[in-house]
Design goal:
207 residues, alpha/beta, 6-stranded mixed beta sheet, 22% strand
Length: 207
Amino acid sequence: MKILYGTGNKGKIEAMKNIIKSHGFDAELYTIKDVGFDQEIIEDGETFEENSDIKANAIRKFCIENNILDKIIITDDAGLCVDKLNGEPGVYTGRYAGEHPTQEENINKLLSNMKQYSDMKDRSCKFVCVLTAILPNGEKIVSRGECKGAIAKAPGKLGGLTYGPVFIPNGFDKPMGDMNEEEYASVHNHRDLAMDELVKKFKELGY
């Protein structure tokens, strides 16, 4: 089994390796750099599903053109959705405060927009990850993972996941950014959950 993961992000690649290993899959993992894909992909979809699909189709087209036909292509799109903000920042998670904003700028805009909601029950939100897989025969599989929580009123330690300093997972009283490694590992990660679902579908297909 050969998987071409549509990312150059080292953290995502390591997470994928760990999930594959935990499920006992005998799989080789490749990145877009390994196959020479360096095209810019315009992610102009209105949902995570659409953006993930756009990425998968672009990489699939490149693979067909370059006779790379033996790999399962996997792409993802992920972000934060706040209930009281009608799902914002959503697909604009990384550029909520404009093009190429800092982590602090994105967080400050979010906290400003949430200022009117002082009750924590009005600050509910979720991290979402959607994965799209295209099998060598062209068949598509889509999976979704969600991690629910609430938006803190003030940011914790900056760094890591963009909104980690203000995302308090359900069952905890502090944001992800302030958790130690053991606590962080105990939180169900949205990407891990989406991968778990995808791996189950692979097994159903006999991989």
